[in-house]
């Protein structure tokens, strides 16, 4: 069979537009009469809003519209159905949007922000997830700072019997690793342009990386659908469905979302930043609304990779087998559910690395703190675990005096091994990959390691 | 009245008149690489701008005893100037490590000095070069030694209606030696964590007219006079170098900030002064 | 209000501005020339880089009136209509562009280098591009693109 594309060199289809400067990023799209949007953000890390007076902004010359929580049709979005577009009473992080203005230009928009009067009862915040786990820590979420998975304060994945395994071990090696949070810092910041169209429709030009998911979520926030649809708990469940009846039912036929080209995302453009606010302002003012986040807003307030504290406790035999492993992960989730629950499941699937351990217990906790919501970035929830597991494998090997590569071959997955989630590995080739890598890297392996295969039965 | 102006005089006398007339309500614009940053970040709202790019303040000349650099000279022009390379190679070395090429094409040496950051590389090099500053206004001309020019972070002796015209640097002596070092969090586009500029002449193997200027380790660009005194009139050896380096680390007053701790700055001052003196 | 009179990519414009309006704002919002980007608005990232009288500058921190009676060149103006500058071809062929956001500024910085130094070393390329940030490519392919363009020139 002759391939048309596989094995061939193909030009990057948007490459010409990039090198000629013709690529139109969201901020490069100009629609007549577009208003400039700016957000009024919380100056405190945690507090209760006692009074908010936007009349000074509303009455200002050149201001076309001001919105608060009252203007948001459905003000709780996300996988936890808990995140407000604009804060009603309880502020959870410094920079959280409380109001937004649409004005003729940026200068007027900033003046309008200065005219907003707010009275906040400041409360004590908590920033460190370890401190946030204490029973007397300030509450970030009303229900408590630790995400519950049924009755457990962590997402559990286990197989075998770790305690029995530890008793069998010759060495117990424990260490905690810390992987800090990271800002994706794409060259393009968050930008959104919302354009009201005829007959109650709206087009949103977005920088998001996951348009189909956010399309449904935005329709839910804007409540564009029928009465029945409005009763659905989370419109995101339905995103991407193609049945036209459902689209009409959920109001998706009234919302067009265009995303791309995106000026870098790396996971930082998977959640809402500017789109809901520009969309609501566009519908309210009847004019296109554009909001470009400054670099400072991007670094301080956008979603970022969640920091993780990861503890490994390994029971290792002198012959190099890891017979028991306990992993505890604590994910700094910031102040809303977002992707953080899902993240714990990912960590559980991958924290053990490509190794087989018969007795395994993984407890992944998501803990809330008074910071912008932690989210996705380049292998989120597993890149930190990969760093930690590999560092710990080296530590184990050093403790028993075994070559770190040999230690990995010894514990590498083979065909027929079970993962902690019950999945049986029918086709794994980590041993062959390591052998090929060693060859390519010019690393000399002892013969017996070159002779191993993924089909070998375990001793 | 709320009216704001962009004034681009062709004559330095007119510039001074405008500065006097708009005293306190106008900012001087050269390259803009500090002023426009502050404006874009809304830390500053200049009402009027007096642009000095058309005043001919971008010339580099040499007379019998001095190198004279116009305050409006860009950093790139200094780097490329044969006269500057010969008479003030220390300043050229410092300018090469400021920001990045596009910034150096616009930024002026006058702006670097008048912005008066304690980390201003150009200012630190000029300090080690015994520079005098020529200041003009409607009241005439005055000269101030650079070592008395800075009064605090971001503050200088300039009145609100004064303009820096040029920098007078003594021409390099035949046997002069210099060294420059700067460290930061990256290899380019860095505000220094510590910068060191050393200038001296060497006669019969002994150090004369030693100047050690340090950046980002005090409220202003700092002349380490005690450290210089350790080696003044002496021949360098390992022990003396170590003593001078330690003296420099002791006489500074660094702070903890987002780029580094005071402790680290003292360590690096010691290290960099020693390295420069050893390399000379 | 000041009136800016300048040429951009060979065409003359007259624009009313405020004293602190930046050249970047004029190019993008008044003239709809969108290849220069606003990545930081503080002169750090390089995405706004253009030529002013042939010199590479940061348009985001250049007061627009500084360009009065001068010539501005953006990426749209480095090659005649319908043709490619060797740098543009080289960036395409050598994967020097991914998301495309840093690309206009990056090509302008590379062009400034090759205009002065047609046969730069790898170190000279890196120094010339030291003011242009890219978060996608890791820079290796960008340097290779500039090397390829330099080879084309000879």
Overall description:
The complex is a heterotrimer of chains A (459), B (280) and C (154). Chain A is of the alpha+beta class. Helices cover 27% and strands 22% of the residues of chain A. In chain A, the strands form four sheets. In chain A, strands 3-5-1-12-9-10-11 form a seven-stranded mixed sheet, with helices on both faces. In chain A, a hairpin with a 5-residue loop joins strand 14 and strand 15. The longest helix of chain A is centred in the last third of the chain and has 18 residues. Chain A is globular and about 80 Å long. Chain B contains eleven helices and 14 strands. In chain B, the strands form four sheets. Chain B has a five-stranded antiparallel sheet with strand order 4-5-10-6-7. Chain C is α+β, with helices and mostly antiparallel strands and 154 residues long. The chains are: A alpha+beta (459), B alpha+beta (280), C alpha+beta (154). Chains in contact: A-C, B-C.
Which structural traits does this protein have?
heterotrimer, B: 280 residues, alpha+beta, 5-stranded antiparallel beta sheet, 4-stranded antiparallel beta sheet, 14 strands, C: 154 residues, 5-stranded mixed beta sheet, 5 helices, 5 strands
């Amino acid at each position: 069979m002759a391939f048309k594309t596989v094995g061939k060199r193909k030009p990057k289809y948007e490459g010409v537009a990039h090198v000629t400067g013709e690529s139109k990023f969201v901020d490069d799209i100009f629609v007549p009469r577009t208003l400039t949007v700016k957000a009024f953000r919380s100056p405190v890390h945690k507090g209760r809003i006692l009074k908010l007076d936007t009349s000074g902004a509303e009455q200002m010359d050149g201001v076309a519209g001001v919105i608060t929580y009252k203007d948001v049709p459905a003000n709780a979005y996300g996988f936890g159905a808990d995140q407000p577009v604009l804060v009603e009473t309880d502020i959870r992080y410094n920079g959280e949007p409380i109001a937004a203005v649409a004005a003729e230009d940026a200068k007027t928009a900033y003046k309008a922000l200065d005219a907003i009067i707010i009275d906040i009862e400041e409360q004590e915040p908590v920033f460190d997830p370890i401190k946030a786990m204490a029973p007397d820590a300030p509450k970030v979420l009303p229900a408590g700072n630790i995400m519950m998975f049924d009755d457990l304060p962590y997402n559990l994945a286990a197989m075998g019997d770790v305690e029995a395994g530890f008793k069998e071990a010759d060495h117990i090696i424990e260490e905690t690793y810390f992987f800090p949070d990271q800002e994706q810092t794409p060259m393009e910041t968050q930008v959104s342009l919302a354009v009201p169209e005829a007959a109650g429709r709206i087009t949103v030009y977005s920088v998001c990386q996951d348009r189909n998911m956010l399309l449904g979520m935005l329709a839910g926030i804007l409540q564009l659908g029928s009465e029945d649809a409005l009763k659905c708990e989370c419109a995101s469940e339905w995103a991407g469905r193609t049945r036209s009846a459902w689209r009409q039912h959920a109001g998706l036929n009234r919302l067009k979302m265009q995303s791309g080209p995106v000026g870098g995302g790396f996971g930082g453009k998977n959640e809402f930043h500017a789109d809901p606010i520009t969309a609501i302002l566009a519908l309210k003012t009847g004019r296109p609304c554009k909001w470009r986040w400054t670099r400072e807003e991007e670094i301080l307030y956008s979603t970022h990779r969640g920091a993780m504290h990861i503890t490994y406790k390994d029971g290792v035999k002198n012959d190099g087998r890891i017979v028991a492993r306990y992993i505890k992960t604590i994910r700094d989730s910031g102040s809303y559910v977002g992707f953080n629950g899902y993240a714990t499941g990912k960590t559980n699937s991958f924290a053990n690395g490509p190794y087989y351990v018969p007795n395994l217990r993984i407890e992944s906790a998501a803990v809330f703190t008074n910071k912008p919501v932690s989210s996705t970035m380049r292998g989120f929830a597993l890149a930190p675990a990969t760093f930690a597991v590999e560092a710990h494998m080296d530590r184990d090997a050093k403790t028993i005096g075994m070559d770190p590569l040999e230690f990995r071959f010894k514990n590498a997955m083979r065909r027929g091994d079970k993962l902690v989630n019950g999945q049986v590995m029918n086709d794994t080739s980590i041993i062959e990959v390591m052998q090929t890598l060693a060859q390519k890297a010019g690393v000399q392996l002892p013969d017996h390691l070159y002779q191993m295969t993924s089909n070998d039965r375990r001793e | 009245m709320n009216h704001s102006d962009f004034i681009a005089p062709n004559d330095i006398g007119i510039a001074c008149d405008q500065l006097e007339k708009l005293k306190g309500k106008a900012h001087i614009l050269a390259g803009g690489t500090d002023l426009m940053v502050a404006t874009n970040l809304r830390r500053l709202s200049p009402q009027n701008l007096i642009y000095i790019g058309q005043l001919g303040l971008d010339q580099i000349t040499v007379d019998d005893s001095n190198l004279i650099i116009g305050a409006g000279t860009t950093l790139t022009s200094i780097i490329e100037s044969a006269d500057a390379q010969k008479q003030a190679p220390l300043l050229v070395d410092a300018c090469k490590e400021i920001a990045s090429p596009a910034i150096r094409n616009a930024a002026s040496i006058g702006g670097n000095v008048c912005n008066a950051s304690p980390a201003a590389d150009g200012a630190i090099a000029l300090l080690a070069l015994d520079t005098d500053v020529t200041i003009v206004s409607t009241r005439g001309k005055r000269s101030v030694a650079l070592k008395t020019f800075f009064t605090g972070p971001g503050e200088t002796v300039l009145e609100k209606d004064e303009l820096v015209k040029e920098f007078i640097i003594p021409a390099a002596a035949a046997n002069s030696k210099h060294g420059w070092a700067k460290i930061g969090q990256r290899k380019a586009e860095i505000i220094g964590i510590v910068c060191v500029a050393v200038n001296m002449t060497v006669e019969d193997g002994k150090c004369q007219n030693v100047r050690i200027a340090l950046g980002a380790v005090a409220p202003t660009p700092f002349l380490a006079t005690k450290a210089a005194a350790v080696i003044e009139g002496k021949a360098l050896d390992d022990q003396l170098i170590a003593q001078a380096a330690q003296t420099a680390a002791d006489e500074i007053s660094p702070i903890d900030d987002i780029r580094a701790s005071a402790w680290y700055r003292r360590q690096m001052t010691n290290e960099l002064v020693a390295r420069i003196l050893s390399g000379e | 209000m000041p009136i800016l009179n300048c040429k951009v990519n060979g065409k003359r414009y007259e624009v009313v501005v405020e004293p602190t309006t930046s050249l970047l704002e004029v190019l993008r919002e008044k003239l709809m020339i969108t290849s220069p980007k606003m990545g930081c608005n503080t002169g750090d990232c390089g995405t706004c880089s253009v030529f002013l009288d042939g010199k590479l500058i940061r348009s985001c921190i250049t007061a627009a009136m500084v360009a009065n009676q001068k010539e501005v060149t953006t990426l749209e103006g480095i090659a005649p209509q319908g043709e490619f500058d060797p740098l543009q071809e080289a960036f395409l062929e050598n994967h020097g562009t991914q998301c495309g956001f840093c690309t206009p500024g990056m090509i302008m910085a590379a062009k400034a280098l090759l205009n002065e130094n047609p046969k730069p070393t790898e170190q000279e390329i890196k120094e010339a591009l030291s003011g242009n940030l890219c978060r996608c490519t890791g820079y290796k392919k960008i340097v290779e693109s500039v090397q390829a363009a330099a080879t084309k020139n000879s």
